[in-house]
Write a structure and sequence with these properties.
Blueprint: H1 3-18, H2 22-34, H3 36-40, H4 43-58, H5 61-67, H6 69-91, H7 98-105, H8 108-117, H9 120-129, H10 140-173, H11 177-198
Helix pairs in contact: 1-10, 2-10, 2-11, 4-8, 4-9, 4-10, 5-6, 5-9, 6-11
Protein name: Threonine transporter RhtB
GO cellular component, one term: plasma membrane
Keywords: Cell membrane, Membrane, Transmembrane, Transmembrane helix
Length: 201
């Protein structure tokens, strides 16, 4: 793998990862409404979700999903249902005291994992995206590990940046920011679920 291909891959990863999706929406909502620590504790789950999807994609699960649409649809429906659940939970969330926020923050990594891993397109994405940058003339496993690691690191930086920025924006907006962010974030997740439901595979 030459430097030019690697540079192109890094730039592509930055553009793809920085585009806000359901996980970023959840991080922003959580950071503003519950605090940046709660958002930070969600990030390991998102990381593990991406890592698991990446491993499964190179283990052939991506091909299984493509050849057997029933698996894709089951994944998709679960992801949609989970997005709607998170959206409704955010909209109807009551203001929590600091103790409850601490307890809920400890469970956030599970939410992050399910939010990322329950999207079948994550597995399909890794199955189709990373192989484009793999050279047949170099060690396959090394390239997969390198490219996968780069993607995950950029993802971590992106998630921490969004979470931190959202927290301080929430502080600037004042006390009502937490309430408004929870409602808008919840609505955004529900809309995302509806769009995913009606999109063509």
């Amino acid at each position: 793998m030459n430097l030019q291909i690697l540079s192109t891959y890094i730039i592509a990863c930055i553009f793809i990862i920085c585009a806000p999706g359901p996980s970023v929406t959840y991080l922003i909502t959580t950071s503003i409404s519950k605090g940046k620590i709660s958002a930070y504790r969600t990030i390991p789950g998102i990381f593990l979700g991406d890592l698991s999807a990446m491993i499964l994609s190179f283990a052939g699960v991506g091909l299984l999903i493509i050849n057997f649409p029933v698996f894709y649809n089951l994944f998709k429906l679960f992801g949609i249902a989970y997005l709607i659940y998170l959206g409704l939970k955010s909209i109807f969330r009551k203001i929590e005291n600091s103790n409850n926020q601490e307890k809920s923050a400890q469970k956030n990594w599970k939410t992050g994992f399910l939010l990322t891993f329950s999207n079948p397109k994550t597995i399909l994405f890794f199955s189709s995206f990373i192989p484009q940058f793999i050279s047949p003339h170099s060690d396959y496993l090394f390239q997969v590990a390198l490219l996968g690691g780069i993607y995950l690191v950029i993802g971590l930086v992106n998630d921490f940046t969004y979470s931190t920025f959202a927290f301080y924006v929430g502080k600037l907006l004042g006390e009502n920011a937490s309430y408004v962010a929870a409602k808008i974030g919840g609505l955004a997740m529900i809309i995302s679920a509806i769009l995913v439901f009606f999109e063509h595979n």
